Amino acid sequence: MTNSPISGKTAVSTEPISAEPLIEVQNLDVQFPGASGPVTVIDDLSLAIHPGEILGLVGESGCGKSMLARSIMGLVPSPGRVSEGRILFKGTDLLTLDEPERRSLRGNQISIILQEPMTTLNPVFTVGNQIEEVLTVHRPEMKQRERRQHAIEIMRQTGIPSPEARIDQYPHELSGGIRQRVTISMALIGGNVQLLIADEPTTALDVTIQAQILNLFVELQEEHQMSLLLITHDLGVVAQTAHRVAVMYAGRLVEIARVEELFDNPKHPYTRGLMRSLPRPGPGSRKQPMPSIPGTVPSPGEIPQGCSFYDRCSHRDENQCLSARPTLEEVSTDHWVSCHRKADLAPFAVTSSDGPASSDEVAP
Q: Per residue, what are the HEC states of 150-208?
């Protein structure tokens, strides 16, 4: 039986992944009111994350990655709303839960880490107060001394040095890397986190600290056997951490595959453009201009009728690509692509380190 694009298994993990998804997003639409009618920012999106899996979600700013995370958390900002679809967490549709039920899941079984810790942390409270607040909500039976000891222990687990002293400090007294570790502690202290969403968790950090935080995510994911949705625009981050990769463009999912398959054999023109935009060290590389994808992501109200990537694609066909929206189709095992021209593209080749980019023209 052919697998669906929302239930592919990774071959990267050394541990088997359950056949049943932990969370499954089905045909999700998110809309905001506009001057001439509803504006769709997530359009018929479906994907799944399995127990113990790291799924990387990549795409340019404005493509809908963070809105997907907010939809899962039940935090779509007003006046936006989920207009269609389901979000199944262990078989329960999160969209049918009332606010108290959603609140019991947030920070307990499903947690999120945002990209800028200074916007997450309250500057007038110590980090200890803010970490312990999660326990106050989800573990009201715990005494204050127990909460403090539990907070110190989770801070130690997330690599915060001298947690006994740091717990009484304020966010402005900490470095960016330590602040991010505090937000990770807040996300995990509930003790029963099964899905962790990390939304651009390393964007504001320098390269050295970025690597440390990514290693921490992998260690924590393996230790707690939780699933991780890693949202980023950086393919390099995905390459070193994820099992599978989903590529978003203009609110739609355009490609999903195992990480090795995607990097070896990207099929969508947008994914190929992202691959070519990666810096590549080597002799002569500094003399070559950095490849880029022309144009910008269209605003939600200006997406072409057919393929959302039409205006920026060098392989577009007016009759084929504008007449109908492409759907996700399996091109190889667990590799799904949404593109009318996918069968006509030549084999992918990246920019060489000592010469110009290969042509990648449409095969005759």
A: HHHHHHHHCCCCCHHHHCCCCHHHCCHHHHHHHHHHHHHCCCCCCEEEEECCCCCCCHH
